[in-house]
Amino acid sequence: MKKRSKRFKKLLDTVDKKKKLSTKEIIELLKKNANAKFDESIDVSLRINLKQTKGGDFGLRTTVKLPNGSGKKEIIAVVCEADKIEEAKKSGADIVGSDDLIEKIASGKFNFTKLICSPSMMGKIGKHGKVLGPKGLMPNPKLGTVSNDIKKAVEDIKSGLVEIRNDKDGNLGSTIGRKSYSSEKLLENYNHFVDSIKKEKPDTIKGEFIKNLSLTSTMGISYKIGGK
After folding, report:
1. Cα–Cα distance for residue pair 196/173, rounded to 1 Å
2. Distance between CA atoms of 138 and 132, rounded to whole angstroms?
3. What is the CATH number of the domain that holds 203?
4. Pair (59, 166) in one structural domain
5. Rounded CA gap, 126 and 129, in Å?
6. Can you give the pTM of this predicted structure?
7. What tens digit of pLDDT does each residue of 79-121 get?
8. Whether residue 170 sits in one domain with residue 64
């Protein structure tokens, strides 16, 4: 059994199981208790209903653009044609290349967290799905990472576009900001995130789509959400 630190045990004392807190109150409590020596992220976790009335289990994979950004620093790489490299550099991407960057990807020597690809280069990138896929880096048109508009794709990611994908049990989550964000901005991001997930509910699923919700900080404890 993992030994809990004194700091973590002290955080547990802040939980009053008899008292029902609003989402805003939970966010304020998270901010107050986020006492690590860095700007902790505030994360939302939830579980969705995967059971459809017809067909197999539902799978959710989409993007949500948080109104106040996520605060997460992404390292963005762009693979494009040689004549578009200069344009890609001006877009604000951190790493830009063509066949040379694909060679680095093939060797497994890369350190980016997001990969954008122009459509004409997808044939070459697709051969390296075994390297990129497990890391969640494979470009996808539905996620805005395969595009001729490189500038917009980069700007979207930098301004708070987060990728959402559930696991086999229906669990998914996202960072909705940092401790340094105001409670109002975090609440706005939270509500937008949850509302966006609700809109993804297919007609083939009956009843509640979101089964449970919780909020936590990087080094904090988890609080179940009971309301807005």
Report:
1. 13
2. 5
3. 3.30.190.20
4. yes
5. 5
6. 0.82
7. 999 999 999 999 999 999 999 999 999 988 889 999 999 999 9
8. yes
